[in-house]
Every structure is written in C-alpha cells, then in structure tokens.
Design brief:
333 residues, alpha/beta, N-(1-d-carboxylethyl)-l-norvaline Dehydrogenase, domain 2, 13% strand
Length: 333
C-alpha cells in the first residue's frame, strides 16, 4: 500500500515507522522543510522521536503537492486547530478522489465539529471515504515495537479493512469498527480527563483519587458520546477505556504532564510555552463544555477542568467542588 502521512509530529512519525515496517511505501509530510530534510538525510526526526530510525521506504517532504500526488490514502495526523487549514491547502493538489484516515484527537473549537465533519466539508466530492484511527498508542512505544492495539473506524468497511490489513503486524494489532463518532469522541474527550489526572498527581494525591477520576471521567465521556451517536461498547473498548487509562496514568502523556505542572502551581501559559508538543485537552475542554451544554449532558469533571484551564480556578477548589456535589446514584444520568 502507498500511504501519505500528513504531519511529522510524534504520532505521525510513529505511524510512518509502523507503516514502513508492514511493507508499505510512505511519504511523510513535515510542515518544516528543515525537519523533512533531516529525516531524508539521517533517517531520524530531529524533534519528534529522534531515537527512532525510519526505513528507506519512508520518504520525507515539505511539499503538500508531492504528498497528495503520491497516494490516494492520506493519514491526517496534525493538531485539530490546524486540520482544516492543512486540508484546504491539500485540496487543490488532489488529482483524484481520496480516502482520509484521521489520527487527530481533538474537536474544532470554533465549529464544535469532529475531524470527520471537517473533512467532509473541506473535501466534498473529492472525499472517497473517511476513517479514524485511535486507541492506547503512545507514539514512542508504538514506534519502537512494543505490542500495541488500536481501532480503525469507518462507515466504509472496505477502507477500514484495507487500513487494518496494511498496518497490522506482530507488534501493532488493529481492530475495525463502524462507530466513527464514538471513536472520535473517545479519543478527544479523554484528553481533558488526562489533564485532570495529572493535576491530582501534581497535588500529591494518591491512587484512590486517580481511580475515582478515571471511572467517573469515563462515565461522563460515555454520556456525551452516546448523545452524539457513539456506542457504549466503543467507550468500553480500546478507543475509550483503553486510551483513557493510558493517557491518565502513563508518563509519556502530554496532557497528563500539563496537569502535573498545573497541580504544582505552574501557570498554564508558561507550561504550554515550554513544549513544542500539543496537549489537545486544553482546547478540547472548551469544545467539550459547549457540547455538553448544548445537549444537556452533566459533565462535572470537564466543567471543572474548563474553569481551571480557562478561568484561573485553583485545582484544589475545583476538586473540593467535585467532592461536595449533591449525592446521587452511580449510574444516574
């Protein structure tokens, strides 16, 4: 299979390594020409996953035209706030209709649209099919060959199965699904809860608190996802519970790391300025809060994280408010 990967961040680089290891030809697009040149000459991404050597079957470029020409299967792995803009730049370079596989875990803030919706609007008739790839997939562990499982969801079973067979290996196992909304929402909303998990560590709290947060976080994510068309089994699977547990507990989680620093008292602006990696949960907290309000879904953890991230609320005050809410049944909607 020939694959164009749009985005040479950590996950894009990891997917290039996985795809090449499965025998596919890959073009990896980097926004920065210097990064593309460095990958071409040294086989290493100098900024993201520098310890991972990419095979010769991975060709790096900073030309969207070259990436568009190479394949009619585009893996979009760019931050959610750049996704629409990059697609708009790609559109004039397409010579045929394309399939898009999104690895982006976020919701567009201005429109509250998922990447499937953004893709359909931007590409129109040029979009042959859409899929989303998600799951508990830290980029470094995936790229170095730690056994990893993910899910690819598409309304087009042929595309889901094509990606599943092209990208699966003894170290990377993909399951297929047709629950696009559920997989997209699970992958996006868990980042907000992951920041909260980091806050708890930053505050010096223990495992009891983290376990409660993960469980109740999954509950509120599930409520919103189902309201927006997702299925409960998806939220209990790799894209839901699996990715949530990973991102809330793993030291490689960017979102959790932001939360740890917040819990220790560091200002958000300072935290974000110190890293080139994108913590999608900061922006997603806005979209999640608005979607919850629009659909009448009670999401108390998300609401408190919005206050901490965007209104200057102290983490301890937010936690106190969560623990003193009115008592109710565990499964109460």
């Amino acid at each position: 299979m020939k694959i164009s990967i749009i985005g040479a961040g950590s996950f894009g680089t990891a997917m290039a390594a996985v795809a090449a290891g499965c025998g596919n030809e890959v073009v990896l697009w980097a926004h920065d020409p210097n990064v593309a040149s460095e990958i071409e000459h040294t086989r290493h991404n100098p900024i993201y996953l520098p310890s991972i050597a990419l095979e010769e079957s991975v060709r790096a470029t900073s030309s969207l035209a070259e990436a568009a020409e190479f394949s009619d299967v585009l893996f979009m792995i760019v931050p959610s706030h750049h996704y629409r803009g990059v697609l708009a730049q790609l559109r004039p370079n397409l010579r045929r209709d394309v399939a898009v596989v999104s690895g982006t875990k976020g919701i567009e803030n201005d429109t509250l649209q998922r990447m499937s919706e953004v893709t359909a609007l931007e590409l129109g008739d040029a979009l042959r099919a859409f899929a989303v790839l998600s799951g508990p997939t830290f980029a470094l562990e995936t790229a170095r060959g730690d056994p990893t499982a993910a899910v690819v969801a598409s309304l087009d079973l042929a595309l889901a199965e094509q990606v599943q067979h092209a990208m699966s290996s003894p170290t990377f196992r993909i399951y297929n699904s047709n629950d696009v909304a559920g997989v997209e929402l699970a992958g996006s909303l868990k980042n907000v809860i992951a920041i909260a998990a980091g806050v708890l560590e930053g505050l010096g709290l223990g495992s009891n608190t983290t376990a409660a947060l993960i469980t109740r976080g999954l509950h509120e994510i599930t409520k919103l996802a189902i309201a927006l068309g997702g299925r409960i089994e998806t939220l209990a699977g790799l894209a839901g519970m699996g990715d949530l547990v990973l991102t809330c507990t793993g030291s490689l989680s960017r979102n959790r790391s932001v939360g740890v620093a917040l819990g220790k008292g560091q200002p958000l602006a300072e935290i974000l300025s110190e890293s080139r990696a994108v913590a999608e949960g900061v922006r997603t907290s806005k979209a999640a809060k608005q979607l919850a309000e629009r659909h009448g879904i009670d999401m108390p953890i998300t609401a408190e994280m919005y206050r901490v991230l965007h209104e200057g609320e102290s983490p301890r005050a937010a936690l106190q408010r969560l623990m003193t809410r009115s008592l109710k049944a565990e499964a109460a909607l």
